[in-house]
Amino acid sequence: MGSSDTLLARFMALHPKLIDLSLGRILTLLERLGDPQKRLPPVIHVAGTNGKGSTIAFMRAILEAAGLSVHVYISPHLVRFHERIRLGAPGGGRFVDEDKLVEALERCEAVNAGDPITFFEMTTAAGLLLFAENPADVLLLEVGLGGRFDATNVIAHPACTVVTPVSLDHSEYLGNTVTKIAGEKAGIFKRGAPAVIAPQEPEPTAVLEAAAERAGASRILIGAQDFNVHEAGGRLVYEDGDGLLDLPLPRLTGRHQHINAGTAIAALRAAGYGGLPARAFEDGMRQADWPARLQRLARGHLAEIVPEGAELWLDGGHNPDGGRVLAQAMADLADRNPAPLVMVAGLLSTKDAAATLGHFKGLAQALYAVPIQNSLAARPAEEVAEAARSAGLVAEVSSSVEQALRTIAARDWPAPPRILICGSLYLAGEVLSANGTPPT
């Protein structure tokens, strides 16, 4: 038996394009595997630009708090590929172990027989095979890119489909307007399945609602119209036509997580899980965990470098809307507990660095641009610094995250700083690995 790393490296050579959105290749492969996509537990299928992973994290926490076993499929991973496939089990799921992963990948490789297929298609097939052959009560399935032609869009009868907030990202594949991107995300809507649309701007909402109607969704639930979530008296209040839930504030930091939590609750209710005990929804808010999304790093190698009393935060937001939400969260933290904000940022060349970082103008006192080591699309640190300066920030270049933190620690600050590492999930993965705190 080989290793998963060896197999995954081989898959990269099976198709000339890293991304080639289509369903024909994966449907052929799945047919050769015995159509595992037809033998799954109830599926909640989630698309969107931002908030997909957090919404899934809330759903998983609620379902597991109710005693259900939950499969989860996400992408990309942060440190190890195994993070993409979580197999449900009583008492809580676990990332797929190496032996099971290798066996599934080898079976997919054997039946594919060298035919052209993308890395994501092959690994999605392996995930669906594992989900079909290991029992669980629910599968939470995250779209990789877009929706209409994404390799996950092979589920004919999902229990529910969800689209989280849509904004500009991956324009080279999905279109250069929010309406075009929303149309691609809407491709996951299915006849007879409820469609849940997270609170978002009117333009994508209109596109998504019309698409859900055309697809024949059994119910269409639109945030702020059919369900509402807000903070009141230090609690999170969720309301829809089925009633009200008075819940603790989410463990995940930021007002945007209130929207993700509300979308998760709406999806579970639409999918038939509204009758779970109230305690499950309460515990889900307290227990939901999603690494590299405004994650506080309180221990580990990098956390030991920062000045005494300083805060170290990590976030993988990587597009302009993600930057907006992150800046808002930092401003909220500053209102409650003022501290100098210092940024350490690395971005990909495919992202609008100036637009993403521009939201921090007047908020961050300094930015240290760093390289990303493990991505061919990494933007040089010098370009990140220049983009930050063009957006009105004071920026300089550091050779690494660790060097940036040491430079910050050596400076004289008026108070212990709040340090935010951000800009890319690839960078976030490198940080978690270097810190010795990978996802579990």
UniProtKB/TrEMBL annotation:
Its EC number is 6.3.2.12, 6.3.2.17. Pfam families: Mur_ligase_C, Mur_ligase_M. It comes from the Bacteria. InterPro entries: Folylpolyglutamate_synth, Folylpolyglutamate_synth_CS, Mur-like_cat_sf, Mur_ligase_C, Mur_ligase_C_dom_sf, Mur_ligase_cen. One of its GO terms (cellular component) is cytoplasm. This is Dihydrofolate synthase/folylpolyglutamate synthase. The keyword tRNA processing does not apply. It catalyses: 7,8-dihydropteroate + L-glutamate + ATP = 7,8-dihydrofolate + ADP + phosphate + H(+); (6R)-5,10-methylenetetrahydrofolyl-(gamma-L-Glu)(n) + L-glutamate + ATP = (6R)-5,10-methylenetetrahydrofolyl-(gamma-L-Glu)(n+1) + ADP + phosphate + H(+); (6S)-5,6,7,8-tetrahydrofolyl-(gamma-L-Glu)(n) + L-glutamate + ATP = (6S)-5,6,7,8-tetrahydrofolyl-(gamma-L-Glu)(n+1) + ADP + phosphate + H(+); 10-formyltetrahydrofolyl-(gamma-L-Glu)(n) + L-glutamate + ATP = 10-formyltetrahydrofolyl-(gamma-L-Glu)(n+1) + ADP + phosphate + H(+). Residues 308-424 form the Mur ligase C-terminal domain. The keyword rRNA-binding does not apply. GO terms for biological process: folic acid biosynthetic process; tetrahydrofolate biosynthetic process. GO terms for molecular function: ATP binding; dihydrofolate synthase activity; metal ion binding; tetrahydrofolylpolyglutamate synthase activity. Belongs to the folylpolyglutamate synthase family. Residues 46-267 form the Mur ligase central domain. PANTHER family: DIHYDROFOLATE SYNTHETASE-RELATED (PTHR11136:SF0), FOLYLPOLYGLUTAMATE SYNTHASE-RELATED (PTHR11136). NCBIfam families: folC (TIGR01499). Keywords: ATP-binding, Folate biosynthesis, Ligase, Magnesium, Metal-binding, Nucleotide-binding. Its cofactor is Mg(2+). Functions in two distinct reactions of the de novo folate biosynthetic pathway. Catalyzes the addition of a glutamate residue to dihydropteroate (7,8-dihydropteroate or H2Pte) to form dihydrofolate (7,8-dihydrofolate monoglutamate or H2Pte-Glu). Also catalyzes successive additions of L-glutamate to tetrahydrofolate or 10-formyltetrahydrofolate or 5,10-methylenetetrahydrofolate, leading to folylpolyglutamate derivatives. Pathway: Cofactor biosynthesis; tetrahydrofolate biosynthesis; 7,8-dihydrofolate from 2-amino-4-hydroxy-6-hydroxymethyl-7,8-dihydropteridine diphosphate and 4-aminobenzoate: step 2/2; Cofactor biosynthesis; tetrahydrofolylpolyglutamate biosynthesis.
